Amino acid sequence: MSNDTDAKPRGLVGHITAYFINSQLTILLVIALAVFSIGTVILVPKEENPQINVPGAAVTFSYSGAPAEVVERSVTTIMEGRIRELKGIDHIYSTSVNSGSEIDVQFLVGSDWEKSIFNLQNQIFNSRDLLPSGVTYELHSSRTDDVPIVTLTLTGKDYSDNQLHRVGERILEELRKIPDTGVLTLNGGQPRMIAVDLNPDKLASYQLSPSTIAQSLEAANTELPAGDVSDGQTRLFIEGGSLFQSIDDIAQIIVGFSSDRSPIYLRDVATIRDDFRDRTSYSRIHFRPDYELSSPHPHIKDRPAAAFVSQPAITIGVAKKEGTNAVTVAEEVFHRLEELKPQLPAGVEMAVTRNDGYSAEATVENLFHELMVATVVVVVMMMMFLGWRDSLIVGVVIPLTLGTTIGIGYLTGHTINKVAMFALIISIGILVDDGVVIVENIHRRFELKPHLTFKEKLEEAVDAVSEIGAPTVLATLTVVLAFYPLRYITGLIGPYLAPLSFNVPIAMVLSFILAITVTPYMAVRMIKLSHAHESQDLHSTRIYRWYSAIMQPLMDSRRRRRFVILAVSGLLAITLTFPLTQAVKVRVLPKGNDSNFLVQIDMPSGTGLEKTNQVVQEVEAVLQQQPEIINFETYVGTYAPVDFAAMFRGTSNRGDKHNAEIRVHITDSKARAITTENLVLQLRPLLTEVANRHQAVVKFLEKPPGPPQRATVLAEIYGPDYTQLRELSKQIRQVFNGTKEVVDIDDSTRNQIPQMQLTVDQDKAMRAGITRSDVAQTLNVLLTGEDVSTLKIPGEILPVGIQLRFAEQFRRNLNDLDRIQLPNSTGALVPLTELINRQSTIVDQPIFHKDQQPVTYVTGEMGNRSSIYAVFDQLFYFLRHPLPAGYWIEWDGEWKTTVDLFRDIALALTAATAMIYMLLVGQFRSFKVPLIILGSIPLSLIGILIAFALNGAYLSALSLIGVIALAGMVIRNSIVLLEFIQERLREGADLQHAILEAGAVRFRPILLTSMAAILGNAPILLDPIWAGLGWTIITGMMASSALTMVVIPLIYYGDRLKQSKRSSVSEDSDPTQDTTGGESYAS
What is the pLDDT of residues 141-155, one digit of tens each? Predict the structure, then answer.
């Protein structure tokens, strides 16, 4: 080893390498990391998307008989103010209607669920005294883990949905026994009940009232402990009363006595039968005969062609507990279902209509495959340039780094999901840089000295690492600093992208540690010296001659240098205008290509169930004509099992008779030529035509590519007068109608619905000697029925409700109210019509609040256009046609997400650039050199924007994150290049030779690291959502790598010449001499 090399200080990196390069500890480190990686990859929970913790709750208040305005003033406004006092509240939404209101509370992302709900419960409980008497409330909490990961649809051609509901209840209770299952739901069908249908004529003849019957039923179905007796040795427990055992028991209860004191039995005044509750919904499934109903991951055997089969159905939803593995929970569910199959009634089948466990496993396995492909491609590329031995070193380090990164994530509570896997794929193109640079430098130095002994190879390898140790540390830190600020992105998108800010920095730090420990250890043992070729002078190499032919003329001519720099600057300025001129269009995230979507159908408010069902059947007929559709489930008067997107859109409030939802499943993306987005574009006009014939609104909800929105385009209209707000929302809806590609338009106003209002006339009731509660209870029994007790039937999991109601002919015809009579305290009968007031009115319009302010909404979805440009069109419209004074619009939905996300990414990029700049200033002890290095970032934008313009692709938020990734990747090339130039200058080389030698020496590692980034990110191009990030890295790296080798040295050269001229102390001094440092600059 030469003396000059011995004289150079090794630094911390060199000392670490010197320790590990010939230590047995290195082998143990590799073995330990390999075992750790394999174990954690097996154990780590897997899910399709990252966990987004957003606690929420819906508080429902009931204020019987109060108009919407009274409810708003007396209940909603008061409780909103009290809830707002809590910490951690993000938004409060409320809806006030006749007789009640609902307040939806959304906590800040990442809030502790248990603490948030506990505080909310306490606040509401302690605020009860502020509410009017008679107001009751219920609180229902929600979180993202409540979304079912598995849905099972029960169907059978010989069964009604009500009968299937009973089967579903039994299955539901069995699934509750699985330890890791969370919330379980049952959609469709009506529960079983014991109907007690009162005959008003018989009640009148016996002088009985519904309240008397209700009290008798409750009293007869009671079992209370009466005490115990003891003889000193044993105790005998005694219970008084008995519970109903059968319908006969119910029929036999005594409800009164006739004038001759003979008992009056319930069967004398009512018909008792085993029945189902009144129909409030329809649910059914439509599938092709070759659809594999019971498979955990069903598919069509051949291209769908057969006609659809339609059958009644109900759906069970199974959610998992927080932190559990979606794959294993789903497997446990299906294992239990296999055990339950023999117990199913003959002819009942179970269709798997959602299996997020399978989706998560398939997604992760597919991305693992792409991760392996990317690794192999990078290693093969290395083999082509450095040989198989050098590439094998890198091939060992890459999986060790990735596996250890997953393991650290597992220990810190992270899961493996789509975003985490993409982060690892992105990492491959970056993390190989440390290993490639070090292996290449060791390889180069070995080539220069091909006759080294093993001990000399050890010393040479340590010196090779030390030589590039500082710039490698610096380059690694730049990547870490580039990705770290992403953790501060706000909103729902923050935790969604969190794996990027975690996995990439961790992988980079690990890759650096392995690069300076394991890589040199393997290099000295695997890189074989070539004795056939002696050392070759750098200046005679092909790379040096090629690079010199490009750079020498530019350095020799100030005019040429200026022309190149100005040309590149002009090209950059032109490309930066592309987003403004829409040569490159922008959207928050591109749509995916999932295999299902949701169709929502809203009939005019007040539409009956049968009419809604009739219109839905017309929609179903259109869907059955699409060859890509393999099955769909229909829910009329109720809602489909929620998914993450539906949870934020308030789907659980869509249980009215004028609402319907259809969950549509299509063939796998690999089996169809059309994307989900284009299929929806084809279907929308067909279904809209059906909807328009019936004054309905149809909406298509595709699975969002990221966190969901309440609507894609959402205008919130605020102002002091609510009547005016409703009118403005209708006008703004017309603006939506006139905006290009805004579809599925709706607003929060409702059509006027006539209603018959029956109220108790308290004065008449008191004069007649009948209590107000007796009249109110009679009305309740008449109109809706009243649950008064339960019956435990053998074989049923849950007790069956006993409902007291009037016979159907009286419930359906209010003209017969005079036949319903109530006895007073003297036994005289008083017709119900003399105790109530009847008034024809209009149902109150709902009153909406957001964050305690009155608001109306106008919503829309997007066709084949970005919502950003649609909102721009509307903003320009309202600039020309402003709203009345005191009224304003706030834009939510995808627009707000886009603005917030792009703002956060811009801040993240600014913060990353600032931190990198400070790091570079500290390293180079200069303000100018770091600015020159940072110039490689805008150079990458040239390639990115030109590529997106030519490809017609959208520039998405992920594309901008790709720019942040590039900031770390391209800067490291400039760092290594300028570090080598300055190193050669310190050794006494003149400026031109230093630049040419640096370019020639660093060309191969820059080429290798650039190709590694390009090839490593190639698999990302296959994903429709993440392709933008892949294109950004690939095209940006190509442009930046080529331009960095030319533009950055030219700028540095020009700057050093200016320094030289300013430092000249006499006219006789050579203008190319740097008198401050003794280095010569040949011009």
Answer: 888 888 899 999 999
Q: What is the chain's percent helix, strand, coil content, to nearest 5?
A: 55, 20, 25
CATH number, domain containing residue 87: 3.30.70.1430
In this structure, the number of other CB atoms found within 10 A of the CB of residue 177 comes to 8
For residue 823, the model assigns a pLDDT of 86
Q: Are residues 562 and 488 in the same domain?
A: yes
- Res 735: pLDDT: 95
Domain-embedded: residue 367: no
CA pair distance 411, 402, nearest whole angstrom: 14
| pLDDT at residue 606, as a whole number | 85
CA dihedral 892, 898, 899, 900 (to 10 degrees): 90
* Cα–Cα distance measured from residue 211 to residue 239, given in angstroms and rounded to the nearest whole number: 27
Is 632 contained in some domain?
yes
Average pLDDT of the residues in 984-1004: 86
620, amino acid identity: E
**Residue 886's pLDDT is what?**
93
3-state secondary structure labels for all residues of 658-673: CEEEEEEEECCHHHCC
List, in order, residues 6 or more apart from 425 with CB less than 8 Å away. 367, 370, 371, 374, 1016, 1017, 1019, 1020
Domain boundary among 142, 177, 202: 142
Of 866, 841, 1042, 865, which Cα lies nearest the Cα of 940?
A: 1042
- Amino acid identity, residue 401? T
Q: Any idea what the CATH number is for the domain that residue 651 is in?
A: 3.30.70.1320
Which of 713, 746, 779 is at the close of a domain? 746
User: Buried b vs exposed e over 512-521: b needs ≥16 C-beta within 10 Å?
Assistant: bbbbbbbbbb
Same domain, 529 and 402: yes
Which residues, listed in sequence order, are joined to residue 635 by a DSSP beta bridge? 283, 661
128 with 20, same domain: the answer is no
- What's the mean pLDDT in 579-593? 86
Domain extent, residue 72, equals: 54-142
**Measuring CA to CA, how many Å separate 401 from each of 397, 511, 921, 965, 1052?**
6, 6, 30, 18, 35
The answer to whether position 366 is within a domain reads no
Which domain CATH number covers 411? 1.20.1640.10
What distance in Å separates the CA atoms of residue 950 and residue 710, rounded to the nearest whole number? 33
Give the Cα-Cα-Cα angle 361, 363, 369 (nearest 5 degrees): 100
Whether 573 has a pLDDT exceeding 90, the answer reads yes
Same domain for 721 and 634:
yes
What is the spatial distance between Cα 1083 and Cα 1080, in angstroms, rounded to a whole number? 10
Q: Do 170 and 69 share a structural domain?
A: no
Question: Does 72 lie in the same domain as 30?
Answer: no
Residues 164 and 292 in one domain: yes
Residue 265 phi, psi (nearest 5) = -90, 160
330-334, 545-549, 650-654, range with the lowest pLDDT: 650-654
- pLDDT per residue as tens digits for the range 812-868: 766 777 788 888 877 788 888 888 888 888 888 899 999 999 999 999 998 888 889
pLDDT, tens digit (0-9, with 9 covering 90-100), for 665-711 = 998 888 888 889 899 999 999 999 999 999 999 999 888 877 778 88
Contact 530, 450 (CB under 8 A): yes
Count the domains in the chain.
Answer: 3
Could you tell me the pLDDT band of residue 720, with boundaries at 50, 70 and 90?
A: very high
Confidence (pLDDT) at 563: 92
Question: What one-character-per-residue DSSP string does 275-297 give?
Answer: EEPPP--EEEEEE-TTB-TT-SS
pLDDT digits (tens, 9 = 90+) for 72-95: 999 999 999 999 999 999 999 999
Percent of the chain scored above 70 by pLDDT?
A: 92
Q: CA-to-CA distance for 794 and 742, rounded, in angstroms? A: 56
**Which residue in this structure is represented by tokens 């019956």?**
791
Q: Is the domain of 668 the same as that of 720?
A: yes
Task: Note whether residue 851 is domain-resident.
Answer: no
Per residue in 752-772, pLDDT tens? 778 777 888 888 888 888 888
